[in-house]
Amino acid sequence: MNENDRLIIALDIPDTDQARNIVERIGAAGSFYKIGYQLMPIGGLDLARELSAQGKKVFLDFKFHDIGATVERGVKSVCRLGGDFLTVHAEPDVLKGAVAGRGDDPRLKILAVTVLTSLDAEALKKAGSDMGVRDLVLKRAEFAAEAGADGVVASAQEAAAIKARFGDSLTIVTPGIRPAGAAVNDQKRVVTPADAISAGADYLVVGRPIVGAENPQAAAHAIADEIAAAPGALRS
Ligand code: C5P
């Protein structure tokens, strides 16, 4: 893992021209970009190819959820598109299909989405789960490990527990990151960049605090500096 790649910038932006503009403004401060639902149907896949061609890493946040065979075929197609990370739901059959579809692709890593960072215990209860957030995250991380997936997406609030149980066998990717004093928006389980790294997160996903900033490059630099200075950060 390259220290500079630990910050993943979520391109949650209304169109690809604006997204290209933000990528250009961020420049060398951004080396890893996440493309999700907002751009996917309107040119996001071409943008993913372009970013790869520029030497950037690409996180395809597609959160696949279907019968195993369909997920397997979908992931095979994602391998042809090219990407570094792909999310799928953390259910055993979905994960098995994704791992089979990835096959021996040397680039694509499969990440299991455990519990969205916009959910808390009360929201889980409303959705019908009596399990606490941490127990459910760990259960789903176990599904990921058993299926041979590469990592999980979880809040940094659960990162230490995941690290303690699975060591380095699962890469931990944490959204819900907010620099001290930043707007929380709809996120519930938020953590600062430094605390996320200290808790054991390998990669941080940050959207609005960077792409919504007046100066996205300065915002990305500030977070990258906080990552590099955090106890637990990689040292070259
Ligand atoms: O703007 P913000 O920093 O909240 O963006 C976080 C990004 O991470 C969003 O693109 C959201 O879809 C994604 N995400 C998340 N929680 C997860 C998985 C993905 O917030 N568990």
Properties at a glance:
TIM Barrel; globular; eight-stranded parallel beta barrel; 236 residues; single chain; 42% helix; alpha/beta
- What is the top-level CATH class? Alpha Beta
Number of helices, counting only DSSP H or I runs of 4 residues or more: 10
The strand order across the widest sheet is 1-2-3-4-5-6-7-8
Shape: globular
Distance between the termini: 11 Å
**Main sheet makeup:** 8 strands, parallel, barrel
Q: What CATH architecture label applies? A: Alpha-Beta Barrel
**Average pLDDT level:** 94
Query: Rg, please?
Result: 17 Å
CATH homologous superfamily? Aldolase class I
Structural class: alpha/beta
Order of helices and strands: EHEHEHEHEHHEHEHEHH
Task: List the ligand species.
Answer: cytidine-5'-monophosphate
Number of strands: 8
Q: How helical, in percent, are the residues?
A: 40-55%
* Beta-strand content bin: 15-25%
Tally of domains: 1
Pick out the low-confidence regions: none
By CATH, the topology is TIM Barrel
Short description:
The protein has 236 residues and is of the alpha/beta class. It has ten helices and eight strands.
Describe what you observe in this structure.
- It is a single chain.
- This protein has ten helices and eight strands.
- The protein has 236 residues and is α/β, with parallel strands linked by helices.
- The chain has one domain: TIM Barrel.
- Strands 1-2-3-4-5-6-7-8 form an eight-stranded parallel β-barrel, surrounded by six helices.
- Strand 7 (171-174), helix 8 (193-198) and strand 8 form a beta-alpha-beta unit.
- The longest helix is centred in the middle third of the chain and has 15 residues, at 133-147.
- The termini are close together.
- Bound molecules: cytidine-5'-monophosphate.
- The site of cytidine-5'-monophosphate has 16 residues, from strand 8.
- Cytidine-5'-monophosphate is lined by residues 10, 12, 36, 61, 113, 116-117, 153, 175-176, 185, 187, 205-208.
